[in-house]
Every structure is written in structure tokens, then in C-alpha cells.
Amino acid sequence: MFTPAFGHANRAQRLASILTIAFMVVLFFMMMRTWSTYRWRRWFFVALGLLFPVGFIHQVMVMRGSMGIPIEEMIAGRTPFCFIPIPLLILPAALTKTVVFPGSILPHGGMSGGGMASMAAIWLAITIVVGKGWCSYACFFGGIEEGMASVPSKAKVRKIDLRWRYGPWAVLLAMVLLSLALFEPAYCMWLCPFKAVSEYIAARNTVGMIQNGIFILLFAALVIALPLLTKKRTQCAFFCPFGAFQSIFNKTSVFDVKIDTTRCTPCVLCQKSCPTMALTDESIARGETLMSCMKCGACVDACPKDAAVWHIRGTEVTARPERARLMFLYAAWAMAIMFGGSIIAEGLATILHVFV
Amino acid sequence: MKTLAAKLGYAGAGLTVFAAVLTPFVLYGLFTKGIAHLGLHVDEIYSGGPKIRTVQAAGYTIDIHRQVSPHFFQTEKPFVQLDWRPVSALPAHVSDLVDIDGDGAPDVHVSFDVPKDSKAPLRVDVESLNRRYEAMQNVGKPKYSSLIVRVDDAILVRIPITSTR
Predict the structure, then answer these.
(1) A5, A154, A253 from A124: Cα distances, Å
(2) A232-284 pLDDT tens trace
């Protein structure tokens, strides 16, 4: 969707596209061959998380020479739009038809990309298909912390208060209300940890310096340090308002993960393996995941009794889970290739451009 | 009932896979068009509001935008935006009397230097000839409501408004 047409691409871009397609095909093949989902999806997701900043930062440096967004670019409507502010823009847009983001609805040159309408369309399409699976197959930020969480062999911090799971909802509520009251994308202005690896507000004054300090601190804590200590995706599990918003769409998705209680022992290996704490003792007893499940497949891979299974709504838990898995993966991987694949290719092309 | 639910489930799953395949060819474009046609507009604090009048000066024009008022608890003051364009036709020093409200009497006297280097910082002085508009002295770009910036082929000046009519 984003990479230039193959015919117009330079050598680095062509090579990057070929390598990305091969990478995605091999991963899918391995998923099918080994019946393991999480393990192979993680390669894709970490690659996405690491290569997005490479491609993006390169692009902003070429276009404007700085990672800081100057006020001129905001006034011109050329601030790149990512998906995270989407829930924050809904109320002001519904009440006043105003988008409280300094971008443009349609493409407007520079870093405006395809415009806000285009990003919203991608979000809508992927959400219809995979629900909160967005957080495992499309989010170009989550891969960094998933990579960090996979570094240590064992978690140093194992006891985490389950009440932290309400963090994203609290942040979502606060940011939605604040965005409506202040008529600005409050999360982007004050709390987004990923500003540290994408672009930040050009610090024109003390307030700007404080904002940038918060971005860096949150990134260091939630995306680097805590995943290393807990082996969890802490930013996603305890902080991300978009993740909380996306949980709502798990209720509309036809695919989910269930626990077959007739097979479950319960050893709680699924609970331990879940990167976002979407399984509790109670939910396992009920045979389901919480609505914050992002369908990464970690619990399904971890279960020694094959009790954690992919499932299609309306069907029996025991009814052909492999069919449910296949249908989900065809849909999710198609989206992953189209959206994440193009981002991986762009990041890869940036690196290859140095050598080719 | 269970069989019907299962059939609906499989049908939904099949449609989802179909939607995933259709996305880049049909759905993406369809959704983009749909969202673009919702009639949404970017907050005028950023965009500066729609242009209402153009004043012809010596070889260049001054676009006058509609007054922008902040929403709810926005911390910016109401302001009016003036665009000098094209930059290439502007003299090294601009000093213009501008009638913003169109009543025939000048409301502000705006003066600024136009450096040849497009990335050089800009500073503006605004003398208020109408109490409605705030004076500004040697202002760069501290706030959305009081600034001077260069955007593409125009120099934009935003003048805060002290009171609304």
C-alpha cells in the first residue's frame, strides 16, 4: 500500500521487496508446518517493530532534516498520522465535525502520507478482519517491546498486580476526555512513548522540553526496562489506550481463542505465557480469554494438552480448532503482508540502500 | 440452533477471509473515500480557518482568513491569519497596513523582514490600529495564535484578537 510501484523502485527497494516477500512466505510456511503460531509471528512482529523506526526516521530526516515536527509542518497539515489517536478524535469529530490533529484528511505532500482518511481506512479494514489481532499483526510499535520481552530466558519480576490490566482503560478514558476538553490529541502531546523512536514535538519552549522528556522516560520504562524484567508487553498491557479501544472490537470479530475446559488440567502455562495478561484463573475456568486478548497465539503454543484453541464464534470449542486457526491465519497474515510487509520492506530498503 | 450458529460462524469467518483478500483492491479505497466524504475538517487552530478575502498589494497578495475561535478549554486566544504570497514577490522588508474587517480603515500595521534563506527564522511586529487586534513585538512562533511562519510559498502571520464583537 505504501511502497512505490515495483517498476519505479530502485535496486534497494526491489531487493527489499523480494526479501520481505520471501521472509513472510517462509514464516507462514513454518506456521503451517510446525503448527506453532506465536513463535513465527514473533519474528515478523519484531522485524516490523525494529524496521518501522528505521524507514520512518530516514524519511523524516530526508524530508525535513529533523525528527522534531516544526510548527510550520503542523500548520501545513503535514504531520504524519498514526493509528493511536483514532479513539481520541472520535468525540470531537462527532460533536463538531472537527479533526483535532494537525494533519490532513487527504494526501497533502511531505510527511502527510496517504492522509488521515487512508490510515483510518487501513485501521477499519484490519479491525473488521482481526479485531484486536491488530495489536499482534499490524501495530508497528508493539514489536519493539515484544523483542525486549523475548530477550531474557526467565522473568525477573513475576508477581504483577492484576489491577494494572485496567491501566489502558484508565488512560483511554482520561485521554478521550482530555482530547475533547483541550481539543488536541492529548496522548500524542503528552504520553506517547513511541515519539521517542518516530518523531517528537520540536521543543520551542520549556513545555516542549517536558513533553519530550516524558516521551523518552515512558519509552525507556514501558518499552525497554519493564518488558526485560517481566517478559510481558507492558506498554500494551498496562498503558496503551489504543489497545483498550481495540479490545472492544474483539467482541465483533468472528475469531477468538478459547480454553477447552474438558482438556485443561489447569497448569496455567497459558496464563504465564500471555504477554498481555489476558488470561486469569477465572477466565480459564470459564473457558475463555479476556477481551484484551490480541490473538498472538502464545497460549495456544504453550498449552501441553492442546486445551487452548483457536475458535470461530458460534461453533463448539472442540469443533475443528485447526480449521479456525487456518481461517484466522489466512486473514491475519494477508493483512500482515499488506500493511506490515510494506513497512518492513521500506525499513529494509533504507538499510540496503547503504550497501546496494 | 447450535448447527445454525456454527454455520453462521463459518460463514462469518469465510467472509472475513474474503474481506482480507479484498482489502487492498477494493475495501481500502472504498473506506478512504467514505471517510474523506464524512465532511470532516482539520481544527482551524492548525489550519488557520478559511480564506475570506484577498487584498492586492504591490506585486503580491495578502489573504485574510476568517477569525478562529478556540473550542472548549483550548488555551489559545482567538486569532486571525494573514498570508503574504508569493514569497518570491515580497520585498526584503514588508510593511503593510491591513484592513482585516473590510470596513475601509486599516486595523493593523504589520512589518517583517523577508530573509533570502527560506529556513531563516522570521520575526514580526504588529502595531494595533484597532483595539480588537493585539499588538505584537518581535514575535517568532511561540503559539498557534501569535506567530509568523513560512509555509510553502507564503508567509503566515497570526494576530491574536482581544475581544469578540
Answers:
(1) 24, 37, 12
(2) 999 999 999 999 999 999 988 999 999 999 999 989 999 999 999 999 999 99
**Residue in B with minimal Cα distance to A128:** B16
What's the rounded mean pLDDT across residues A139-150? 94
Asked if the structure places residue B35 within a domain, the reply is: yes
Q: Specify the pLDDT at position B165.
A: 46
Domain check: are B87 and B142 in the same one?
A: yes
**Inter-chain CB proximity B16 and A327 less than 8 Å:** yes
Q: Is residue B165 part of a domain?
A: no
Give tens-digit pLDDT for B126-156. Answer: 999 999 999 999 999 888 999 999 999 999 9
- Report the pLDDT value the prediction gives residue B164, as an integer from 0 to 100: 54
Q: How far is B47 from chain A (nearest CA, A)?
A: 5
CATH code for residues A255-319: 3.30.70.20
Per the structure, how many domains does chain B have?
2
- Give me the residues paired with residue B133 across strands: B161
Residue B72 counted as domain residue: yes
Q: What average pLDDT score do residues A99-125 get?
A: 87
Q: How far apart are CA A130 and CA A138, in angstroms?
A: 10
Q: Among partner residues A104, A182, A335, which is closest to B20 by beta-carbon distance?
A: A335
DSSP class of residue A13 equals: H
Cβ–Cβ gap B6/A103 under 8 Å: no
Are B150 and A72 in contact (CB < 8 Å)? yes
Which among B14, B74, B147 is the nearest to A182, CB-wise? Answer: B74
Positions of chain B with pLDDT lower than 70, given as ranges: 163-165
Residues 6+ apart with CB under 8 A from B23: A125, A126, A129, A334, A335, A338
Question: Would B121 be classed as within a structural domain?
Answer: yes
Closest CA to A9 of A1, A356, A17, A51: A17
- pLDDT band of A324, cuts 50, 70, 90: very high
Instruction: State how far residue A126 is from chain B, nearest Cα, in angstroms.
Output: 8
What's the pLDDT score for residue B71? 83
Q: Which of A97, A116, A122 sits opposite B28 (nearest CB)?
A: A122
B70 and B146 belong to one structural domain: yes
- The verdict on a CB contact (< 8 Å) between B19 and A76 is no
Q: pLDDT, tens digit, for every residue of A76-108? A: 999 999 999 999 999 999 999 999 999 988 887
Residue B1 is part of which domain span? 1-40
Helix axis angle, A116-130 relative to A321-335, nearest 10°? 170
Flag if A121 and B32 touch (Cβ within 8 Å): yes
**Contact call for A183 and B34, based on CB within 8 A:** no
Q: Is the dihedral of CA B142, B143, B148, B153 positive or negative?
A: positive
Judgement on whether residues B51 and B31 belong to the same structural domain of the protein: no
